[in-house]
Design brief:
Elements: H1 7-61, H2 70-96
Helix pairs in contact: 1-2
């Protein structure tokens, strides 16, 4: 303001600078969210489906792993594994997302 004396050009410059900084921050956040979305699909959708199919095949063969039957392993996966992974994912999302201003 002191150097040019033009308030309009100063405000225009500052507005463009702040919008550019915000746009860059949003691009970073969007990239991170896309990566986390892919991880979520892999861990919470494809992972349990794969484990359920594998444990079902093992139950047909009659194998026992870790001293647990395949039915017990499925119960542990469904009732403890999935909620634990979901909780961990929520904590990660909370840490990654920017705070509201």
């Amino acid at each position: 303001m002191k150097t040019s004396g033009d308030l309009k050009s100063l405000l225009t410059f500052e507005t463009k600078r702040l919008l550019h900084a915000k746009r860059e921050q949003l691009k970073k956040t969007l990239g991170t969210l896309m990566t986390l979305g892919e991880i979520y699909i892999t861990a919470m959708v494809m992972g349990p489906i794969l484990l359920i199919v594998m444990l079902t095949i093992l139950s047909i063969m009659g194998n026992v792993a870790f001293g647990l039957s395949p039915a017990d392993q499925l119960n542990i996966l469904v009732f403890f594994g999935l909620p634990t992974i979901s909780t961990i994912f929520i904590v990660i999302l909370n840490g990654v997302l920017p705070e509201e201003e």
